[in-house]
Amino acid sequence: MALLRIRKYPDDVLKQPARPVENIDGSLNSFVESMTQTMYAAPGVGLAAPQVGDSRRIIVLDTDHENIGKHLLKLINPVIVEAEGSITWEEGCLSVVDFTADVERHAKVLVRAWTPDEKEIDIEATDLLAVALQHEIDHLDGRLFIDRISRIKRELYRRKRLKMIKEGKPDGKPPAAARI
Q1: Inside any domain, residue 4
Q2: Which stretches of the chain score pLDDT less than 70?
Q3: Domain count of the chain?
Q4: Is 95 inside any structural domain?
Q5: Helices (DSSP H) in 19-121: which residue ranges?
Q6: pTM to 2 decimals?
Q7: Residue 55 contacts by C-beta under 8 Å, 6 or more apart in sequence?
Q8: Can you tell me the distance from the alpha carbon of 155 to that of 139, in angstroms, rounded to the nearest whole number?
Q9: Distance between CA atoms of 96 and 38, rounded to whole angstroms?
């Protein structure tokens, strides 16, 4: 498996909605494995295909840092079918370097998706898993967590990021905490 290059804001690929996966086949497995290895190497909690320049609706997630791989989710065409409540969580992102912010999300979600072995599954999630699922599905819809914060905070980050790029620091490190 090869590590993939994680695209960073303001890369245009991060703003494009991903297309559904039409056929789940063996060629998908190798890509999903590369995504998984890239997520762990970053290190992050989740990774969506658009973050590595692929326009398919695929995400990988592992919110259990103490048992790496034990609760790994590899999801194809995930969709939120139910959501309720509200929770605020400090989020960061592998594609949004040097920045975290409190983001309001649903406290509980039910996500329906397919696995690489062609099984349809439902995932009921709360807390970090619910936040991570919503965060990664946002990526599939061409949204970043910074699209969910105030316009002023977003603009301040945009200016900071453009300055980093101008100064030759385009791949700064994402914050150590809350990388989703």
Answers
A1: no
A2: 1, 172-180
A3: 1
A4: yes
A5: 26-41
A6: 0.92
A7: 13, 16, 18, 19, 49
A8: 19
A9: 16
